[in-house]
Design goal:
By secondary structure, the chain is mainly beta. The protein has strands at about 10-15, 20, 25-30, 35, 75, 80-85, 90-95, 105-110, 110-115, 125-130, 150, 150, 155, 160, 175-180, 190, 200. Helix content is about 0%, strand content about 30%. The strands form six sheets. Strands 12-15-7-6-16 form a five-stranded antiparallel β-sheet, with no helix packed on it.
C-alpha cells in the first residue's frame, strides 16, 4: 500500500463550526473532534483534577507533654487567721487566686529545711524536709499530714462566708479558703503561721525531667 495522500489540495469540514477548511490545517482535539487550528480548545483542567490526599495530622516523632503534677503553692507571711464561730475554730487561709475547688484536700507545710541523718562521718546524709508550722493562738493542728478538706471563701465570727464566688466582680479571683480546725483557738481574728509556709497536695509527686 502506498500510504495516505498528503491532502494539500483537500478540504475538511470542522466538527465544531461545520465550516470548510484546508485539510492540512485541521487538528484533532482531546475528545476526538476534527477542527481547524483556529477553533482548537484544549481540555479543561477541571475535567481531570489532580488527586488530593488528606491533610497531615500526626507529627513525626512527637513528644507528648507529660501529665501535670500537683505542686506546692507558697503562701504569704502569716497567711492563717483563726475564727471562732459557734464554739468551733475555723482558719481562714489567704492564697491569692488559688483556683482550688470546694472539697479539695490541702496539706500545709512549713518552710523547707535541710536535716542531717546517720551517726556522723561517712554515714551522715543531708536530707531536705519541711519544718512544722508554729502554733499560734493555740491552733496547733496545721501540720496534719492527712491535710484538710477546704471550703471556699472567708468565714467570720458570725458564720458569714464572703469571697467564695466572683459574682460581685467577675474580674476578682477567689483569694481565700478556710478549714475546720480540731484545736480550740484562744480568740478570733488572730493571724499566724510564719514565713515560707505552703499549701499543696497530701503527697508530693515526682516531676520527670
Amino acid at each position: 500500500m502506498a500510504g495516505y495522500a498528503s491532502g494539500k489540495y483537500a478540504y475538511a469540514i470542522s466538527d465544531r463550526s461545520g465550516m470548510r477548511f484546508p485539510y492540512d490545517e485541521m487538528v484533532r482535539e482531546w475528545n476526538g473532534s476534527l477542527v481547524h487550528y483556529s477553533e482548537y480548545e484544549p481540555k479543561q483542567p477541571q475535567l481531570q483534577p489532580k488527586p488530593v490526599g488528606s491533610d497531615p495530622i500526626a507529627l513525626f516523632n512527637p513528644r507528648p507533654q507529660p501529665a501535670s503534677v500537683a505542686s506546692l503553692i507558697l503562701l504569704d507571711n502569716n497567711p492563717f487567721t483563726s475564727i471562732i464561730y459557734s464554739g468551733t475554730t475555723y482558719v481562714n487561709v489567704y492564697s491569692e487566686d488559688h483556683q482550688r475547688k470546694a472539697g479539695d484536700v490541702v496539706r500545709f507545710r512549713g518552710p523547707p529545711e535541710v536535716i542531717s541523718s546517720g551517726s556522723g562521718g561517712a554515714d551522715a546524709k543531708n536530707l531536705q524536709a519541711f519544718a512544722n508550722i508554729p502554733t499560734f493562738n493555740n491552733v496547733s493542728d496545721l501540720n496534719n499530714t492527712n491535710g484538710f478538706t477546704i471550703a471556699l471563701g472567708q468565714i467570720d465570727s458570725s458564720g458569714t462566708v464572703t469571697g467564695a464566688t466572683t459574682s460581685d466582680s467577675l474580674t476578682d479571683p477567689i483569694n481565700y479558703f478556710y478549714i475546720t480546725s480540731t484545736s480550740s483557738a484562744t480568740s478570733g481574728g488572730v493571724s499566724g503561721g510564719g514565713a515560707n509556709t505552703s499549701a499543696g497536695p497530701v503527697t508530693l509527686g515526682v516531676v520527670n525531667g
